Q: What sequence folds into this?
């Protein structure tokens, strides 16, 4: 589709990109914003629909051939007007608007996965910071996590900031909604023999290096400050922690995710 050069940032076709720094397009809006060439390219190679793209004029030559990658309309604005439109100094050259799909819930018709004999899942509860969430999702994609359950209190995995930090990984992962891990975990064990490990700083936690990985494992990560809820902790099979030194009693949840998930993925038994 040919690139459409515009001069007026008030053009209604540009509404999805308007004031995106102060507006949060939720699941109910029906779309999300991909920011920068890496995330836009991930959108174009995913099975999500791209509604449109927006290019700054000085980057037009760089992205002129991207019209061949999608049937979505591509708009071009002078860079000063693009910054006025989005509401901040944007230097990455390209944005895109993608169509959302509601996150399925495990147990919904057609939502249950046929897990392989060896699988690692991640459950997230109360991860409120979109950048922490995005970093975790990037780690999950890098380590080949089979499914991520986004639980109560979590940031939106398709928010602009989460997508940017995840570098578009949210568009490639199997994401599901979990209303309550206290209800989900027993079902996962009964239906799929998935053993759960909670990351928790509690007397009942064992050092990570002593944890024995099972063929099908779920790692649960909680709120940046409060950790996992008591109701979730009561339902997990095991609790693990990362021993720390020099008086440090906690680490960023994104860092914890990388360490713990690498341990479980690397120590997967032969099946």
A:
């Amino acid at each position: 589709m040919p690139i459409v050069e515009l001069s007026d940032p008030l053009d209604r076709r540009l509404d999805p990109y308007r004031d995106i720094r102060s507006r949060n397009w939720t699941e109910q809006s029906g779309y999300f914003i991909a920011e920068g060439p890496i995330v836009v390219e991930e959108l174009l190679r995913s099975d999500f629909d791209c509604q449109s793209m927006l290019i700054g004029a000085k980057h037009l030559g760089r992205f002129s051939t991207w019209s061949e990658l999608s049937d979505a309309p591509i708009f071009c604005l002078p860079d000063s007007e693009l910054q006025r439109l989005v509401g901040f100094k944007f230097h990455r050259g390209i944005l895109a608007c993608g169509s959302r799909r509601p996150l399925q819930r495990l147990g919904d018709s057609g939502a249950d996965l046929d897990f392989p004999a060896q699988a690692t899942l991640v459950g997230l509860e109360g991860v409120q910071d979109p950048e922490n969430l995005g970093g975790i999702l990037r780690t999950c994609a890098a380590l080949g996590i089979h499914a991520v359950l986004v639980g109560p209190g979590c940031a939106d995995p398709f928010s602009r900031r989460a997508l940017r930090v995840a570098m578009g990984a949210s568009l490639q992962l199997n994401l599901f909604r979990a209303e309550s891990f206290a209800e989900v975990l027993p079902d996962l064990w009964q239906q799929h023999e998935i053993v759960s490990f909670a990351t928790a700083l509690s007397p009942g936690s064992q050092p990570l290096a002593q944890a024995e990985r099972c063929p099908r494992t779920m790692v649960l990560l909680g709120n940046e400050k409060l950790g996992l809820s008591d109701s979730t902790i009561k339902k997990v099979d095991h609790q693990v922690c990362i021993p720390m030194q020099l008086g440090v009693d906690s680490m960023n949840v994104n860092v914890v995710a990388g360490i713990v998930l690498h341990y479980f993925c690397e120590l997967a038994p032969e099946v």
Notes: DSSP finds eight helices and 13 strands in the chain.
